[in-house]
Structures
1.
Amino acid sequence: MNEKDLQKLQDELSAYLDGEADDPAHIARLIAEDADVARVYAGMQRLSSQVKSLAAPEVHPAFATRVMAHVREAEPVPSAPRHVWRWSLIAVSAAAALFAVTFAPSFFTDPQLAPSDELNGQVAQVLEMRAMPENALLIALESEPMDSETRGGWEDDAESYMNFAQDATLEQEYVDLVATVAALTHDDMPLDDDGDVYEAMESLNDAERGALRQLLSDYAEGGSQLL
Amino acid sequence: MSEVSDWDLVARARAGDAEAFALLVRRYEAPLIHFCMRMAGSLEDAQDIAQDSFVRVYRYLDRLRPDAKFSTVLFGMARNLTLNFLRDSGRRGRGVTVSLTRDDESEQSIADGAARPDESARLQEIEGLIGQALNLISPEHREVLILREIQGMDYETIGEIIECRSGTVKSRIARAREQLRLKLIELGGESL
């Protein structure tokens, strides 16, 4: 059995153990018929039960009280308008179009995306809502928290950037930027929520992905000054 | 009488009912701290991260959408904060302090130095080794294993928390199990 087949078998045995195998009957047969497979599976079972039995820490009785004391001091982030995602997307699209025209004229050339005064006003509103740490996105872009084995596709890249976003605001900033590029390059694509953005990312071709990387990098270097 | 749903409590908290949010904290404090502790490697750090997670989720209450489980949102926040913590502190887990000596006949690996470990001490040793090995595998693998084995989440939920597809979760959990097995061997726990 070559390395790839072995890895696939391990994936399937592991999923079978978790009740998530695609074809459990096939895996059950393999375990029943092949002593080596049965041995590997038994090892997985043993390890799984040992991890499951790790003792949970005792929660301090005052933990919830302490949390609530901080909660009372916390300043809630204002409620977003119902369609904040959409107008945020429009606003960032306008801003991105502005510097896309500057930085990548051969790529972003749609004249319809030139910002109007109204959109510029919306950009200002978005900026007021955001507090992006200096160069945070650049740091995120340069971080490679995943090993190459698990960094398979673009989705994983995006995931790694998301992991290292400084806070939820920055995460949303990133999603907005990705949505912007997706909207610029695929105007027929529905972008109703963040899940659609991920799907959109998967559909980008290599040139578009490269442009997105550049866009994010430029954005991070320039920070909000570009906007 | 059925338990009040998480999103009902969120709605009450949004309306200014602090006790409703306190109920959510009490509902999730134990699993969240356990997750953070196994990720960060120390109970003290775990409590700080869990607290920060609750506070941040509270701050963003008005923006949460009930199209996912509340627990998914909460664990997603804790997961991001834990990874930030690990990156910022430049560590890949710490704090587990157990004897790691091989458990063959001639050596004793139990902290209390008993001549022959009883069952309880043996279990303690195994737990120590597993905890130590968990801390040695990469955070990306550790998180999926903890969410699966300790939190009992299915692949789809884990995928929502770590923002990737179920297929990725599936292969990552398998890799995590293999990494853990190899680390245990390195630590002398192959006979576990």
2.
Amino acid sequence: MKYLQEFADETLVKEGIEKIRSLIKHPWKIMEVCGGQTHSFVKYGLLDLLPKTLQLIHGPGCPVCVTPSSIIDLAVELAQQPQFILCSFGDMLRVPGTTMSLLEAKSRGADVRILYSPLEAIKIAKENPLKEVVFFAVGFETTAPANGLSVKQAHREGVKNYSLLSAHVLVPPAMEAILNDSEAKVDGFLAAGHVCTIMGYDDYEPIAYNYHVPIVVSGFEPLDLIHGLYRTIYLLENKSNIVENAYARVVTKAGNRTAQALLLEVFEPCDRYWRGIGLIPNSGLKINKTYQEYDAFHKFSLQIESAKENTECIAGDILKGIKKPFDCKHFGKKCTPLFPLGAPMVSNEGACAAYYNYAKI
Amino acid sequence: MCLAIPGKVMSIENRYDGKVKFAKVSFDGLIKEASLELLPDVQINDYVLIHVGVAISKIDEQEAEKVFQYLRESGDLEELEPNHAL
Ligand code: SF4
């Protein structure tokens, strides 16, 4: 376990928090979009140090957590058939579907492989020409270009036994869905730095303008988070609903244009069901017609069943900032990272898992 | 999984008739291959952020070292070798 005192920037972080204290005049609710940010806030004990007038709402920003169990069921189903090799990122393996997780399928003999990069899957496909290699592709705009590259590479190499089970999600439509929800009252956002590394932050300008919320692009280290919060509160106190970049060391306004072009080349937007939130129009990416032969949904005629999520889980209320993980009666009892009942307990970046792992109870 | 990890470009190789560049990237001595397809202008000795095997942005050396140090301190580097983590 890490607390602030073990962290090199401790003094600077404390100074930043003092600056926030003298700046803040009104109660504000700020949502951090990225699960990596949630993770840092909890891990470094920053939540206890911030003024009580500031409420942080832990957003939906963990692509693993929001992947609906119905898509996981599809991945498990494929993995259990002997002609398939199912690959994904390690985080995705523990997530429970309705019957089991990929890890359980693996322990029962399915060929499930954990990859560091989707590009490794092409190599596996070439080495196993008689098998169908499927990469279960999750992620935000940060990860979608890399997953898209694997499709381009398969195409380039004439690899036919490779396809993507795409469960990508997009950040701006989720922010709008939260802003449109009358129960969720978010005054300002910390936008996810690494998503903006790819996409830049032009997409946030209409959101800031239309919903009257400041949006500050922020990194995920403690000092970056405090700086991002300071700027968001400054904008809120000055009624300035603009987009600002507090992570200019890494993020540019335009983002990575080559990556954006690749997303357009390989994918197209689609409606997507988010675990804990529900259906959000145009909030996902699926493989477009040009690359259809690499779309596992198309290739194996897969349908996403409407998801039956666990009704005991109050994930939706947590994502909307109405409740905290501690308010859930199952937290740490029936629901733990090893046996998660709901999405936010699933991966390290989920709010419930972060509280479970790091918060002092 | 959402992390981007800073590394140093040690060598660059052209593939597919020179259309796509790949690099050997050092993460404090651990060498991994990364695609430079999304960041074609990278040179040897540049510092880059690598996300799931793909370079996504160039950063300066100081930033690279700071972030790497941070990720090491917080125990977040294990995703570089995912099969060791499970
Ligand atoms: S503790 Fe578990 S059941 Fe409760 S809200 Fe979090 S994920 Fe859902």
